[in-house]
Structures are given as C-alpha cells and as structure tokens.
C-alpha cells in the first residue's frame, strides 16, 4: 500500500512500519471521528459504567482497569486506565502508578499466553500534541507484536474492525486474565 493513496486513517494499520512513527495512527483515527471529547463525554470515564462486553473491559482493578482499544493497531491491543480522570502520568498517585504497572505486566503475560506475542510496544502519549487520542484521560497502550506482523496488517485491517471479533478477543483475554 502506498501511504500517499490512503483515503482514510482507518487504513493506517495497513501501512508497514507506521507504528515505528510513534503512536500517530491512533490519533488520526480519533481526529477523523471529531475533536477531543469534552471531559463529561470522556470515553474512559463512561466505559466504567457499562458492562464489560459493551465497553470491551477485560479486567477491573482497584484503582485502574484494562480494556481493548476500539481502534486496535494489532489484535489484542489493550489500554490500562486509572479510574480517575487525570490527564498525565505525573498526576497519578502512588497506588495508581503501582497498579497500572502490575496490570501492564499481566496484560503482557496474557497476550503471550493466548496469542504467542513475540514482543510488545508499551507507552503513554501525554497530551494531544504528543499524539494522545483521548488527551484528557491517561491511558497506557499495550500492543502485542509478532515477527513480520507488518506483512499481515492489510489482511488484519479488513477483519479486525468487526465488533464481533473484538468481542471474541475480549472474551479470550478476560478468561485468560485470572490464569496467566
Ligand atoms: Zn475520563
């Protein structure tokens, strides 16, 4: 795929090596769907009151929770969010930092177990200028990687947008969470 031919940011996951350019694919998807949401419409705050299935939540901790990214870069792309609506990492308290770290480690174990991930991209975009899709609410990305996975992105991109597939991934991750 020639990047210059891309009509929609939804095609971005099909671009080999796009991920090496920080996290901008996610940002582009959100920009396409509109501007940053108002704080009262924050999707990471609203998700907590929904069912796990509706919100793609895989685990609820004491201070933070884990959900699948609605716009995954790769199958199994997860986000760890504190429950509190805080924008940046330095605003997180000791308990939140500790639990986000624990949940990130657990997410890695789960992804390795259920999908045989060979590697991971883990990171937090701080602020809209740094590429945060939802800049008002801190979230850590955990993206599983497989050797040569870039070669499969055009194929994955055709199927991974299906809600049914995301639901299946959520179920598998949630089921493996307590065992990994
Ligand atoms: Zn929020």
How much of the sequence lies in strands comes to 5-15%
What's the assembly state of these chains? single chain
Our Rg estimate from Cα atoms comes to 16 Å
Query: Can you tell me the CATH superfamily?
Result: HIT-like
Q: Order of strands side by side in the largest beta sheet? A: 1-2-3-5-4
Unreliable residue runs: 5-32, 154-163
Mean pLDDT over all positions: 79
What fraction, in percent, of the residue positions are helical? 25-40%
- CATH class (first level) name: Alpha Beta
CATH architecture classification name: 2-Layer Sandwich
State the helix count: 6
What order do the helices and strands follow?
A: HHHEEEHEEHH
Give the overall form: globular
CATH T-level fold name? HIT family, subunit A
Main sheet summary = 5 strands, antiparallel
Tally of DSSP β-strands: 5
Ligand identities: zinc ion
InterPro entries: AP-4-A_phosphorylase, FHIT, HIT-like, HIT-like_sf
Domain HIT: 43-152
Binding site for substrate: 69, 141
Keywords: Hydrolase, Nucleotide-binding
Provide an overview of this structure.
With 180 residues, the protein is α+β, with helices and mostly antiparallel strands. The chain has a single domain, classed as HIT-like (HIT family, subunit A, 2-Layer Sandwich), CATH 3.30.428. The chain contains six helices and five strands; from the N terminus they run αααβββαββαα. Helix 4 packs across helix 6. The longest helix has 22 residues, at 94-115. Bound molecules: zinc ion. Zinc ion (ZN) is lined by residues 42, 44-45, 85, 136-137.
